[in-house]
């Protein structure tokens, strides 16, 4: 569905490769050839799904692997962080399905960092919570994860908030909940970032790559994700 929102020709592919489902088969011809979703999961230190639609969340929670993005998630090494930035209509965000699916990821032992959606005018015209967090907020969280390997926690409890707590409030709560850490020298990372998009967030990809000083891969999922 990403291709319904963006023109691939407008993307800066020289610094940010764009991979779709068709790329999965393009480089595999025989046994022993590289398999793209396996290569991607090996390459990245953190997997970012931004924006995360309700449909892709449901697929992830149930282990479906029907496109490049969900294949990467299914093969992901969950000792490494998975950062998700939900984006959906307010009613879908408040749905018990959303809470259940996020809970499922957590119960499976997945290291999930949730960047909660914000309140604004949505694509459908409604006003409410459901818009993806700003790219710089997502990028800052990626930077924090990469600089402190193993020192991360969910930005909010799994599932939609049960009250009107603001996005900023959730960020403050996370900071208060995290134990104080002694400062450590930065550790070099093998690869900086993999950004997989369920829909379209090229701004987030570019912003994250710039902030982390690393690379970004945008893997667009097809078929109503």
Automatic annotation (TrEMBL):
Residues 152-194 are annotated as: Disordered. One of its GO terms (biological process) is coenzyme A biosynthetic process. This is phosphopantothenoylcysteine decarboxylase. Residues 180-189 have a biased composition (Basic and acidic residues). Belongs to the HFCD (homooligomeric flavin containing Cys decarboxylase) superfamily. Its EC number is 4.1.1.36. The keyword Lipid biosynthesis does not apply. Pfam families: Flavoprotein. GO terms for molecular function: FMN binding; phosphopantothenoylcysteine decarboxylase activity. Keywords: Coenzyme A biosynthesis. It comes from Volvox reticuliferus. Pathway: Cofactor biosynthesis; coenzyme A biosynthesis; CoA from (R)-pantothenate: step 3/5. It is an enzyme of class 4 (lyase). The lineage of its organism: Eukaryota, Viridiplantae, Chlorophyta, core chlorophytes, Chlorophyceae. It comes from the Eukaryota. Residues 2-142 form the Flavoprotein domain. GO terms for cellular component: phosphopantothenoylcysteine decarboxylase complex. PANTHER family: HOMO-OLIGOMERIC FLAVIN CONTAINING CYS DECARBOXYLASE FAMILY, PHOSPHOPANTOTHENOYLCYSTEINE DECARBOXYLASE.
């Amino acid at each position: 569905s990403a291709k319904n929102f963006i023109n691939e020709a407008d993307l800066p592919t020289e610094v940010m490769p764009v991979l779709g489902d068709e790329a999965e088969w393009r480089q595999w011809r025989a046994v022993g050839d590289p398999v793209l979703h396996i290569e991607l999961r090996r390459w990245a230190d953190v997997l970012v799904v931004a924006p995360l639609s309700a449909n892709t969340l449901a697929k992830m929670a149930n282990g479906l692997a029907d496109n490049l993005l969900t294949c990467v998630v299914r093969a992901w090494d969950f000792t490494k962080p998975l950062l998700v930035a939900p984006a959906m209509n307010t009613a879908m965000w408040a749905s018990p399905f959303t809470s259940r699916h996020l809970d499922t990821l957590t119960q499976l032992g997945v290291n999930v960092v949730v960047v909660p959606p914000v309140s604004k005018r949505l694509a459908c015209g409604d006003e409410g919570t459901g818009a993806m967090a700003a790219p710089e907020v997502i990028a800052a969280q990626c930077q924090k994860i990469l600089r402190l390997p193993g020192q991360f926690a969910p930005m909010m409890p799994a599932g939609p908030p049960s009250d009107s707590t603001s996005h900023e409030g959730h960020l403050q709560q996370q900071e208060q909940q995290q134990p104080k850490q002694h400062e450590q020298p930065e550790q070099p990372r093998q690869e900086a970032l993999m950004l997989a998009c369920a829909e379209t967030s090229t701004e987030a990809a570019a912003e994250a790559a710039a902030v982390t000083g690393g690379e970004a891969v945008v893997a667009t999922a097809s078929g109503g994700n």
